[in-house]
Amino acid sequence: MTVTVFIRYVLDPFKLDAFERYAQKWLEVIPRCGGKLQGYFMPHEGTNNIGWALISFDSLAAYETYRGRLRADAEGVANFDFAKRERFILSEERTFLRQVTPAS
Length: 104
What we know:
CATH class: Alpha Beta
Number of strands: 4
Shape: globular
Number of domains: 1
Number of helices: 3
Radius of gyration: 14 Å
CATH architecture: 2-Layer Sandwich
Distance between the termini: 20 Å
C-alpha cells in the first residue's frame, strides 16, 4: 500500500523566498533517498503563512528507510541546517495518507 506523507508548514510570511529555496533543494535529495516527491506548495493568494509538501512511499517501512538515508545525506543535512539557521519554518505537522481515488 502506497502512503503519502502530507507535511503542513507554518511559515514566517516575511521569509517565503527562503521556503521556496528550501523546497527547490529537495528536488534531487528526496528521490535520491527513496521518496517520490509529489510537490511542495506555498502561499499564492489568501492565507500567507501555510505551505505543504506531499511525498509518497511504497510503505511505512520504506518511509523509515528514507528517513535514515535523509539523515545521512550531506545535501539533506545542509538543507535542514539552512531551515534552522534562517528560521522560516515556525512549525510543521505530518499526516500519513492513503489514496482512495486515482488522480484525474
